């Protein structure tokens, strides 16, 4: 295991080091990881800035090949899944799947680059004879915003870390990336970072396209966001962390956008007919979604809303029985585990909140015991603490007096990543009445499934109104994530000799275009 | 003249009133305009929120008809141009043209709505048999963000005020608008506001779709931006004003985006061959662009960059001669005129800055005398004050030692709305070397024209990196302005019975779609 961090093509060492902890044992893993300094941050940003103009002007085909090369290098990296298991406590199957998702994501962005729509070329041809004034030749395309700071996430050591969705979409847009690896998994980070470094070299790109900063202190991330060469930030993590980055980014002499995916409780609405017809099946499936991966998903179902009555009682009983049998799983870090326990304690100590069940007790470190609570709609409305995210397998069933109160509860909630409808045919009218509220509140609305499991595709939205994310106009999963790192530029009457290829009159890149307001045939 | 302000369908009066000043005479115009209170702001926002769900779900055709109705009502408003002349000091031809632009803008957004691309429907069909996991049916569209606060601009009493670009694009997106009229032209504002009110009524829309708040105090705008029902802000004005709104919006419990178009000096680069071949013509055209409308355009050319030498001297001499003959024109308000004089004084008092010429002295109030300065590249690099916008017909010629220094000067400048190249064939190599810097700095790059005069079209970008705007991913002119007020929502496995029309499986609205990653035939 190599303990260096990566500045352009260099692997750097240092006297100051830190180690990763194995959350399953609370023991430090081998390998001392060199800690970057703020000087290294500045050097990485300087290199990224130097790489920017050539990287963003690569033909899309060349950037697509680079993304594919990153995927290949990750697949060729030995010991990656094993190291990620040791550093995260996540099981092999999950991490093997996550590696597949990470590489699939890179390849999907390669495909997107070849399709060309992302560049959004729009041409208004000159109208020299127009009265009273002629119209100039106007050509718009989107270009990369500049070097991007990416923060590795704790809960996706591969798919939302060094070569995860934020990096893949920034690279696709043409933005060099300076990544701050998550301090819980430095070994995983450097393995993936070296894979990117190799791909940069194999593709003959400027070394500044990628750097990896490592270290446990917040000041590195702060220096990164404050560096004037950084033009956008990608982050998945806690609300506190996201808000701190937003504040830093807004306080810069030149404010920049932060794309922070922060927190959500992902309400699940059980409509009456569905609850009546399949309450027991729903109860079991709910606990399956809730306890999967120890509940450490951004889309974990933390709140269930339904109208009180015997059908809801039966659902709750089934869920409680299933949850009581849920075996505790290792959580990602001891800090996350401690926060989870604190959150469960907070929920259970609120007045008029019932603890319906706790998961099985287990042995070993940092095991998260699932927790299921219930409260009335009135109690939930009166106590904002009950709507706070407890990261892990904790959830609360809110027993509403009627559909009107259910709508009121939903309407009072903050922005969410997802809202789920469990509904049968007879519920359509009731669901229709809730839909406008759901659309205002969430980036994704799903029916008769569970919010965990986020498809990486064209139509996906993994985003939503604040505080689910810092910017509801964006998604951090799916091809639309590229839009976070692009801005439009218009070229007016530029001679062919200096027009960028993408907007040249002959369209040498064969890009799809809107010409004079219509899709070009 | 009616002195009321407009809350939904009501015309409100008040005991507290204010009057507009005629800048050409410094005399108050007739009509007492009722001053709104913060209670009125809250009432307008409440109505806007109540109107939101129905307005955003109108068929695009219905919203298009509403935009066209607004245009028709504006055209049918008697005395509009006359009142705008009295309140702004702008001449009749300009305001007649601006009215045409305002109505053309509304009609272009109507056309855009009918084309349907704005809704960005993306469908990933279900793949029930996919291994290892099936794929759900995923449908993305963009929906309106919510009620929008629009601030009227001083320098475009029609095209960037009550029914201007911000309002037109917000309406097009499906956002109700609460507009704060600019206090310099309350009569113009209420005339246009009544036209919108009539269109709302004729189209049978919810009255909350539009309200107009009036008054001279900043606290009204502050209350508007802080209202929790407002979800985005459109603003064109000063850097100070824009920064204040950004800060307010970020300090809300739920931060919201501010689209502020703030300040720019719009550098014009004279390349050597062009300067040699047509320096005199350029000098005259430059002064024409600079002094048009007393220089009160966001895209006014405030800085000229060129390599020092006899060709630049000839250009400067021609420009100085032309400027000395420029007749002073009435500026928009006495405050703007006073600020202009202060800015000119500031520039002329800087060390190593030459005053090349001042425009003719004129009689009458608030006449802005044009001003032309020159400084070396070294002086300009050392003194950031020389790069500050002086709103009005003031400009500085920066004499660079060579092309390398010219690039350095440009690279050091802040974000701009436009950068202009004056170039001939022989300048192509030099222009190519500057283009990447220009792309990083500006939203629009133009050749052999002048930055004033912004086409309202599909390809236009009237935006740019901070501080030209608060958000370089956006434009405030052209059809892409609609994107500021939209956010994506994904629908997963929703039954046809509750899917919104735009994403129903049969595509009843006939919208253009991306299906499984490809443009649908």
Automatic annotation (TrEMBL), chains A, B:
Keyword 4Fe-4S tagged: no
> Record's superkingdom?
Bacteria
MF-aspect GO terms: oxidoreductase activity, acting on the aldehyde or oxo group of donors, NAD or NADP as acceptor
Q: Where is the Aldehyde dehydrogenase domain?
A: 15-418
The answer to keyword Oxidoreductase applying to this record is yes
- InterPro entries assigned to the protein according to its UniProt record, in alphabetical order: Ald_DH/histidinol_DH, Ald_DH_C, Ald_DH_N, Aldehyde_DH_dom, Aldehyde_DH_Superfamily, ALDH_KGSADH
Show the Pfam families listed in the entry.
Aldedh (PF00171)
Keywords in alphabetical order, please: Oxidoreductase
Record PANTHER family: ALDEHYDE DEHYDROGENASE-RELATED (PTHR43353:SF3), SUCCINATE-SEMIALDEHYDE DEHYDROGENASE, MITOCHONDRIAL (PTHR43353)
- The entry's protein name is NADP-dependent aldehyde dehydrogenase
């Amino acid at each position: 295991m190599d303990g260096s961090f990566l500045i352009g093509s260099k692997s750097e060492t240092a006297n100051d080091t830190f180690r990763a902890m194995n959350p399953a044992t609370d023991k430090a893993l081998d390998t001392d990881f060199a800690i970057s300094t703020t000087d290294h941050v500045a050097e990485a940003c300087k290199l990224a800035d130097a790489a920017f103009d050539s990287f963003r002007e690569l033909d899309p085909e060349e950037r697509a090949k680079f993304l594919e090369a990153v995927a290949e290098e990750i697949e060729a990296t030995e010991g990656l899944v094993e190291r990620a298991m040791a550093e995260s406590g996540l099981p092999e199957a999950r991490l093997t799947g996550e590696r597949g998702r990470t590489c699939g994501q890179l390849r999907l962005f390669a495909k997107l680059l070849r399709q060309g729509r992302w560049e959004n070329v729009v041409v208004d041809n000159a109208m020299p004879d127009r009265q009273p004034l002629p119209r100039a030749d106007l050509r718009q395309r989107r270009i990369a915003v500049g070097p991007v700071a990416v923060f590795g996430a704790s809960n996706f050591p591969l798919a939302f870390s060094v070569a995860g969705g934020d990096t893949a979409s920034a690279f696709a847009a043409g933005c060099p990336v300076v990544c701050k690896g998550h301090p819980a998994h430095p070994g995983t980070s450097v393995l993936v970072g070296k894979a990117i470094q190799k791909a940069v070299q194999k593709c003959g790109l400027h070394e500044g396209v990628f750097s990896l900063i490592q270290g446990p202190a917040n000041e590195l991330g702060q220096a990164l966001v404050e560096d004037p060469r950084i033009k956008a930030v990608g982050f998945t993590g806690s609300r506190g962390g996201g808000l701190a980055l937003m504040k830093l980014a807004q306080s810069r002499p030149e404010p920049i956008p932060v794309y922070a995916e922060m927190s959500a409780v992902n309400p699940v609405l059980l409509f009456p007919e569905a609850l009546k017809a399949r309450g027991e099946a729903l109860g079991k499936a709910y606990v399956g979604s809730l306890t999967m991966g120890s509940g450490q998903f951004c889309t974990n179902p933390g709140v269930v809303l339904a109208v009180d009555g015997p059908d809801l009682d039966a659902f709750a009983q089934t869920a409680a029985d299933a949850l009581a049998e849920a075996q505790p799983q290792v959580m990602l870090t001891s800090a996350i585990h401690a926060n989870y326990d604190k959150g469960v304690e907070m929920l259970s100590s609120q007045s008029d909140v019932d603890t319906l069940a706790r998961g099985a007790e287990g042995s070993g470190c940092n095991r998260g015991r699932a927790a299921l609570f219930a409260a009335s709609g009135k109690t939930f409305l009166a106590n904002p603490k009950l709507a706070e995210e407890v990261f892990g397998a904790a959830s609360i069933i809110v027993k509403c007096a009627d559909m009107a109160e259910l709508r009121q509860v939903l309407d009072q909630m903050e922005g969410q990543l997802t809202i789920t409808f469990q509904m049968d045919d007879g519920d359509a009218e009731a669901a229709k009445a809730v839909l406008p509220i759901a659309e205002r509140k969430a980036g994704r609305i799903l029916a008769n499934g569970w919010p965990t499991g986020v498809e990486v595709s064209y139509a996906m939205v993994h985003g939503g109104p604040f505080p689910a994310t810092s910017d509801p106009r964006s998604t951090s999963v799916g091809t639309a994530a590229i839009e976070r790192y692009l801005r439009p530029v218009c070229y007016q009457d530029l001679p062919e000799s200096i027009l960028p290829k993408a907007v040249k009159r002959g369209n040498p890149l064969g890009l799809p275009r809107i010409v004079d307001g219509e899709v070009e045939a």
